Amino acid sequence: MAAMILLGFLDDLLLGGALTVYGVLSLPVSALTALWVRGGDLLTAPVVIPIAFAVGLPTVADDGGGGFLGAVMGLVTALSTQAGWLYGGTLIAGVIVIVRRIRLVRASRMNRAVRPRSRA
């Protein structure tokens, strides 16, 4: 979440809040999140990605003319127009997590098969 907020602020500062740039930058963050998450928490990565995307989005979303309702409307509009990036990041994280999970299960099975059984 912190990475997406930071990227959103940088996007707003350097490029004036380009939503497409924010969406493109969310893809490597999604991949890195899925790669860095602990093995026991693998299933949380695809859930956290959309939340992080939405948390950082107000930094680049249009405020809709000011006020609370304008900011909410700008956020809803940005979420609807940038949904492809959101789904893409979630898909990337999901695929990486599935591959990592398969590799962990295979390694666990190999360890059990190689380990000699004690005859007590």
Summarize the structure in words.
This protein is an all-alpha fold. Helices cover 76% and strands 0% of the residues. It contains 5 helices and no strands. The termini are far apart.
SSE layout and pairing:
Elements: H1 2-15, H2 19-36, H3 45-56, H4 67-81, H5 83-114
Helix pairs in contact: 1-2, 1-3, 2-3, 2-5, 3-5
Summarize the structure.
With 120 residues, this protein is an all-alpha fold. It has helices spanning 2-15, 19-36, 45-56, 67-81, 83-114.
Structural class: mainly alpha
Order of helices and strands: HHHHH
Distance between the termini: 51 Å
**Strand residue content:** under 5%
Average of pLDDT: 91
Helix content: over 70%
Low-confidence stretches: none
Major sheet summary line: none
Total helix count? Answer: 5
Globally, the shape reads elongated
Radius of gyration, taken over Cα atoms and rounded to an integer in Å: 19 Å
* Overall strand count: 0
Considering the chains and any ligands shown, give keywords for the structure:
120 residues; mainly alpha; 5 helices; elongated
